[in-house]
Amino acid sequence: MRATRTRRGARRRGAPRGLRRPLPPGWARRSSLAASAAVGLLLGVATGLGVDVLGGGSPPDARPEVSVEPATCAQAQVAWSRAAAAQVAMSGDDPGTLRRGFVEASAALTTASPPEPVAADWRTVSDYLAAVAAALEDVKGDSEVTGAVAGALDELDTPAMTAAFDRVTRYLKAGCAAG
Known about the structure:
The protein has helices at about 5-10, 30-55, 70-90, 95-110, 120-135, 145-155, 160-175. By secondary structure, the protein is mainly alpha-helical.
């Protein structure tokens, strides 16, 4: 004999009820959702950068000739990878990781001198991260971090930063050669 499934039986077995539960209070605000989307965007770009710069790029013999000092390029690649690594660990569910991610990524980019061909784009990304990190300086509790990030992101030009980020990433991936 075959048993039929009923709602009551499914609830007894602990089956998920879908999206009937309300969002947690911190996620019910539009600013929190915007901050989560921006963090997701940055994490995706940072993860791609980390893979590209740390070995997922094209083979060394296919790279164009380097147009800047190799030491400058290497220093920029290391700083860019550190910034990406700091952002990969960020999670909207853990406000402490947002604070650490933006502060560490900003610090990583200020420690290196960017190659001249992408210096303006480097500054765009660095200024963007520094602005979010500065917005988090005065925030005391973790409950306010998401709102502070969302507020900072509302005032910044995220599409311009994303385009600059992509240009720097492509340049560094190509071994600091224009392409």
